Amino acid sequence: MSRRAEFEADHPEVHVLSADQAGRVDLVMGAVGWLGDEEQVTTCVSLGGESSTVMRVELQELRGGWRTAVLKQSLPWLRRDESVAMPADRWRGEHTFYREVARVPEAAALVPRLMAANEARCLLLLEDFRGASNLASLYRGGSLGEGTAEALGGFLRALRRGTRGEQDAEFANGGMKTLSHRLLFEAPFGSRGQGGNGFGPDGPAPDEGALDDIEPGLGAAASALRSDGAFRDAVAKLGRRFLGAGDCLVHGAFHPANWLLLPSGDVRVVDPQYSSPGDPEFDLGTALAHLLLARQPVEVVATFLSAATGAEEAGREGPANTEEVEAGVDRPLVARYAGAEIVRRLLGGAQLPLEAEGGFRLGLLETARTAVLSGHLEVLET
Ligand SMILES: Nc1ncnc2c1ncn2[C@@H]1O[C@H](COP(=O)(O)OP(=O)(O)OP(=O)(O)O)[C@@H](O)[C@H]1O
Ligand SMILES: [Mg+2]
């Protein structure tokens, strides 16, 4: 029996939804009480989530009123490939993030309003950012722009300052945190055999020949890194730290595919399914990694970092003292997390559609290696 058939047999109350069945979506939304009097779902349009079913629903009233919302259903498998299992508690992780972020108005302003939630059916109903498109387009060129970089940095700063030391004791999202750990700190290093099976949402890590096809020399560089004991130890140590950290509320996948650009030019943040209590440096490092992978102008990177770390730290000289680290951001830790994410994206099974000149990946891989090993990354030093 398929994973999905087994699940449906065990959970007859959960209706698996898809955008091509608007009638079924209408029945379910009616059953959970999310439709107004004389309101009906008229159309559903898939928004193309890889791991969850994400759709825009259009709701119409008999009297002519009209609205839209985003409906997200997260089930214990990958939507793109239902044979791949996903942690069953990820719905709760995403829901908890949206609930918790409401404590921090400055950050809450950048995420969709949570309109309704139904745990039994793994459903979230979210504010629809109509006309928005995600910023995965950045990998193919173009600048994020300094205003957007500042808004994204400000979001992380607000999240860090507003949630430090105050985590909901019940909140762990352990399944997704463990998955994230495997994707970042294990899978790219071929611990399951080089070019072995994919894991979770990531495909198999490319073997050396495939890496050389992507960029000449990348295969040998990958092989050297994978057999570098000191590097592997540093990655393992960082991974243990990642698993144990829990000081702040963390988004968990803070990168361009989860940043939405509105028609007004404002930016929004979605998809906190990997959210958990953790190091705030993790979100900062992830974003920084993607800004470097997307070859963003130095001013954009600098603006992001200055907004994220906070004005009180901008322009600070010399290494941070302990007090500053406690109150603000541990920059070497940001560098290490950034390095690990860069290595994952260059060598692992979650390749990005980068349009970069020859030598770019090799150069960035070396930068990432140094960052993981020594906590040093030039853009963080200025
Ligand atoms: N509230 C929203 N308003 C408008 N568009 C949205 C909204 N939420 C999500 N989207 C669109 O749907 C896409 C998929 O959503 P999301 O990232 O939540 O899905 P996912 O399946 O969890 O993620 P992934 O594809 O990263 O695995 C987003 O990249 C975005 O383009
Ligand atoms: Mg996403």
The portion of residues forming beta strands comes to: 5-15%
- Count the helices. How many? 15
Beginning-to-end CA distance, first to last residue: 57 Å
Name the CATH superfamily classification of the largest domain.
Aminoglycoside phosphotransferase (APH), C-terminal lobe
Number of strands: 10
Structural class designation: alpha+beta
Describe the sheet with the most strands.
5 strands, antiparallel
- CATH class categorisation of the largest domain: Alpha Beta
Query: What ligand species are in this complex?
Result: adenosine-5'-triphosphate, magnesium ion
**How many domains, in number, for the residues?**
2
Please estimate the helix content.
40-55%
- In the sheet with the most strands, the strands line up as 1-2-3-5-4
Question: What CATH architecture label of the largest domain applies?
Answer: Alpha-Beta Complex
Order of helices and strands: HHEEEHHEEEHHHHHEEEEHHHHHH
- What are the low-pLDDT stretches, counting only 5+ consecutive residues below 50? 191-196, 312-316, 322-326
Q: State the shape.
A: globular
Average pLDDT, rounded to a whole number, is 92
